[in-house]
Amino acid sequence: MQIESSAVDAIQEATEKVVVDELHMANLAANSAQRAAVQKEDMEFVRQMRQMILGFRFPGQE
């Protein structure tokens, strides 16, 4: 299988954006709960909200 470097760059950029956005939203959830650190429950909350709003889950999520 051959993949062009520009395709790999695009995949990496998209992946980084998803991760940064996910952590940003989890940080907002932690701040809302008056905590300085993100906890697992913040990540779970963000995933639940995304599923409710967008109607899908990322692969590998229960």
Give structural notes.
The chain has 62 residues and is mainly alpha-helical. It has a domain at 15-54. The protein is built from two helices and no strands. The protein has helices at residues 5-32, 40-54. Helix 1 crosses helix 2. It holds the Pfam family Histone. Residues 2-48 form the Core Histone H2A/H2B/H3 domain. This is Core Histone H2A/H2B/H3 domain-containing protein. InterPro entries: H2A/H2B/H3, Histone-fold.
Distance between the termini: 31 Å
Q: Give the helix level as a range of percent.
A: 55-70%
The computed structural class is: mainly alpha
The low-confidence parts are none
The total of helices stands at: 2
Mean pLDDT: 92
**Biggest sheet descriptor:** none
Strand content: under 5%
The number of E-state strands comes to: 0
H/E topology pattern:
HH
Net shape? elongated
The Cα radius of gyration reads 15 Å
Protein name: Core Histone H2A/H2B/H3 domain-containing protein
GO molecular function: DNA binding; protein heterodimerization activity
Domain Core Histone H2A/H2B/H3: 2-48
InterPro entries: H2A/H2B/H3, Histone-fold
Describe the secondary-structure layout.
Elements: H1 5-32, H2 40-54
Pfam families: Histone (PF00125)
InterPro entries: H2A/H2B/H3, Histone-fold
Domain Core Histone H2A/H2B/H3: 2-48
